Amino acid sequence: MWTLTFPPELITLLLRTSNLVALTGAGVSQESGLRTFRDAQDGLWKQYKPEDLASPQAFARDPKLVWDWYAWRREAVKAVRPNPGHYALVEIAKRVPNFTLITQNVDGLHQLAAQTLKVFETFRVLELHGNIQRVRCSECYTFTETWDDDTESVPRCEVCGGLLRPDVVWFGEALPRDQLEAAVEAARSCEVFFSIGTSGVVQPAASLAYAARNRGATLIEINAEPTPLTLKANYFFQGKSGEILPELVEAVWGA
Ligand code: APR
């Protein structure tokens, strides 16, 4: 097992920072066994690209296909656990007074990691793209915890009869305003901004790192491969977030 060396000035900076933001993408969940958004799909779903399923047009065209894809993804998420990268971010949240986690992931693994470590109040998660564990009506927005999975068609809302759908942001849809506004505010006011496991190509999430950098924050990228953000980063650590983040927590906080 190789050991990363982190620049002493970075260790000093992280020890004294009081306002830190971490933006995460599908790469952080990859080591839990979940494919990244742009990984090829497998099994029945191999023939589809996520972009062709995660849109209002796809749902209008074939609601059952889209509903079944998300049902398959919900089961996939239930079968996995947070990985060391998720837990390392909770450990950072315990040590930095003002920590905000902004995620593009819809799997809820960040929250599960915090619950597992019994950390609640200091772990603020902004879900920019929603959460596939939540289901709501496509018409009246009523959320529901239960639905009839045995029907041949998509389950319907008990309040208005509309088709149920996952509470996620599809291509072409607006992000939840409260989450986005809080994310922009956090990015603009932080001292340190981590971009972790994201290809940094989807807006508006991808612009958050630049907003932080432009306000003078130190930008740290952890990713399996360089991205359009890499040239702007003060520090770039190439590799697996599930390996690098625990090493960083150990090097900085001795945890
Ligand atoms: N550790 C760190 N980085 C990793 C790892 C890992 N173990 N595995 C993969 N990566 C990197 C990949 O190199 C890639 O750059 O994670 C990134 C994942 O990028 P995408 O698959 O594009 O996922 P993401 O950036 O989260 O996509 C953003 O786009 O399609 C929408 O809503 C979707 O939330 C998604 C958003």
Briefly say what this structure is.
This protein is of the alpha/beta class and 255 residues long. The protein is built from 9 helices and 9 strands. The strands form 2 sheets. Strands 3-2-1-7-8-9 form a 6-stranded parallel β-sheet, sandwiched between helices. A 3-stranded antiparallel β-sheet has the order 5-4-6.
Characterization of this structure:
The chain has 255 residues and is of the alpha/beta class. The protein folds into 2 domains: 8-34 and 82-129 and 175-253, 3-Layer(aba) Sandwich (Rossmann fold); 43-78 and 137-168, SIR2/SIRT2 'Small Domain'. Helix content is 36%, strand content 18%. The protein has 9 helices and 9 strands. The protein has a 6-stranded parallel beta sheet with strand order 3-2-1-7-8-9, sandwiched between helices. A 3-stranded antiparallel beta sheet has the order 5-4-6. α6 (109-116) links the parallel β2 and β3. It is elongated. Bound molecules: adenosine-5-diphosphoribose. Adenosine-5-diphosphoribose binds at residues 25-27, 30-31, 36-38, 104, 129, 197-199, 202, 223-225, 227, 240-242.
Offer a few descriptive terms.
binds adenosine-5-diphosphoribose; alpha/beta; 9 helices; 255 residues; 2 domains; 3-stranded antiparallel beta sheet; elongated; Rossmann fold; SIR2/SIRT2 'Small Domain'; 6-stranded parallel beta sheet
If classified by CATH, what would the architecture of the largest domain be? 3-Layer(aba) Sandwich
What is the strand arrangement across the widest sheet? Answer: 3-2-1-7-8-9
Largest beta sheet, briefly?
6 strands, parallel
What is the succession of H and E elements?
A: HEHHHHEHEEEEHEHEEH
Shape: elongated
Coarse structural class: alpha/beta
How much is the average pLDDT? Answer: 93
**Structural Rg:** 19 Å
Helix fraction? 25-40%
CATH topology assignment of the largest domain: Rossmann fold
Bound molecules: adenosine-5-diphosphoribose
Number of domains: 2
User: Count of DSSP E strands?
Assistant: 9
Q: Beta-sheet strand percentage?
A: 15-25%
CATH class of the largest domain equals Alpha Beta
With helices defined by DSSP (H or I, 4 residues minimum), what is the helix count? 9
**Low-confidence stretches at least 5 residues in length (pLDDT < 50)?**
none
Q: Whole-Å distance between the termini?
A: 18 Å
CATH superfamily of the largest domain: TPP-binding domain
